[in-house]
Amino acid sequence: MKIRRKKQPKHINKLPLKERIGKVYERGKTTVGKHLWLELLAMVILALMAATVVFLVVSHFINRTDMGTNEYVTYTEGREYVQNQLLNMVQEINNLEVSDIGKNIDYTALEEAIQYEDEYRIEQLLGLNEEELNAGNNNRESALSALYTKLLELYHNNTWSKENVDQAITEYFTSRGMTKEILVEARIKEILDNALGDYFFYSDSVTYLVDGTGKIMYQDGVVDSLNLINAIQKTNNSEASGDSSKFVGIYPVTLNNEVYYLYNETAIEPFSHTVHTDLGNVLGFIAGAGLFILIIFRLTRDKVAYIEYLSECLGEISKGNLNYKIEVIGEDELAEVAQSITHMEKELKYQIEAQMQAEKSKNELVTNVAHDLRTPLTSIIGYIGLVKDGGFHDKEDQVKYLDIAYTKAEKLKVLIEDLFELTKFHQQAIKLKKEKISLSNLMNQLIEELMPLASDKNIEIETYIDSTGTTAEVDIQKMTRVFENLIENAIKYSPQGEAIYVELRAIGDKIYVAVSNAFENISPEEVSLFFERFYRADKSRNSMAGGSGLGLAIAKNIVELHGGEIGATINEDLISFKIGLPRT
């Protein structure tokens, strides 16, 4: 049986929209605040949006006023309108030559009007305009009534045909005296009366239709003729003068196979144009650019001030004020720069202090070298001087003085050799002659050799040495010196009757060596100074303990040259020197 697990409902965010938007805004603000380039990008976008709005508002406002518009008048529209109307008139007059009476009759509509006994509609279906209908004699109503009666009779007698209808209409035109010439004349009069139509493009106009002699046709008025030569000359002069406010034109037309002339003279009305100038866009751009600069200046003011502040901080640091505190503001790249400057300040301070310490150590080294060289040298000169000047009582005193001078000379030789070796380490002039060796065997041999020295102080050496796994690749001579120095120091500075503990262990990939002994009058602060040159922990016993004070410094260089580490620790009443070396 399969068990269906009920799906857990998905988490539904029930936070109000305003609160969700606020959280999104805060996350975005935090993200932007961590990146300077995002902050600058947001500033530019905000400034561009505001500048665009100002540009649109200012340019729209200017364009709505007289400042942003420019008005001018043209006569081109009027002249084109008049020319088109006159060309239409010419075409219409030319077409009158082929028109016949009854050509535009709608026979179907006419039959329908008779069917519904619509007498008044019959006249509209004859294909004539009002001017043509009035062109005949005055018996219009009686002739129309007779036509209606005739057509009604044809319809009811079932003799309705195109031929019979045409005959009835022809009788109607004949009874009214409406010949083709009369209809053509009526049509031309209507065309001339409505020559240009709309008065919007002109204020005054006259149109004449004249024959070849200049006689004005189909028009009644004061002027009955027109001088064609003067009319043509007037037309040419009008075109030559360039006066667009007046139109004069003459067009040939054909009517009944005869040539006539359509003459027109019109005063053109100016057509007003309103165009927007670039002033609105220019002022809008200036306003938008000004606002953009203002917003960018305002939004970047804090960042610029912070950059100037960091520059001042660098100036203070360059003057040597390494304790100048730099305030870190924000989390962006400028804040990282401030943190880097602070880190640089600490590093410079550390390096300067290290340099000063090195200079101090150098001065102390010179002083210590001079002191340690002068002390044995003074003794040597003194005892040799006694022997030279005969300042001894017997042969035994002479030998004693020479032995003391020789011992001091040996000490001086050790000190000079140690100085030379330490200098070689610092100049990286030491080359190791590494060989594989068991460090446990080397340590046991050294302890065997140093047992007499320990026995003189009644000191017991206790060892904890691994017998296996202690093979390492070392310079035997130099590593022997390190181990020997540690054990000899333990013997020298241990109180009478105490024990020394020597431990050698192989742990992981390293071999660890520890030499521990009891101590007197050593503070924890002195431990870090043991590996400094010429440092001796027991200053009151320097002359008794002997040594150059360079042993541990040389040991440290030897161990580090082998890729190991050396250090000293204090645990209760024991001081331990520990070495870690790579294991082969």
Automatic annotation (TrEMBL):
Pfam family, one: HisKA
Cellular compartments annotated: Membrane
HAMP domain ranges (all copies): 301-353
PROSITE patterns: HAMP (PS50885), HIS_KIN (PS50109)
Membrane topology summary: Multi-pass membrane protein
GO molecular function annotation: ATP binding; phosphorelay sensor kinase activity
This enzyme's EC code(s): 2.7.13.3
Residue intervals of the Histidine kinase domain: 368-584
Reaction(s) the record says it catalyses: ATP + protein L-histidine = ADP + protein N-phospho-L-histidine
Keyword annotations from UniProtKB, A to Z: ATP-binding, Kinase, Membrane, Nucleotide-binding, Phosphoprotein, Transferase, Transmembrane, Transmembrane helix, Two-component regulatory system
Membrane-spanning parts: 36-62
Domain of life, source organism: Bacteria
Any single Gene Ontology cellular-component annotation: plasma membrane
Record's protein name: histidine kinase
Organism this protein belongs to: Cellulosilyticum lentocellum (strain ATCC 49066 / DSM 5427 / NCIMB 11756 / RHM5)
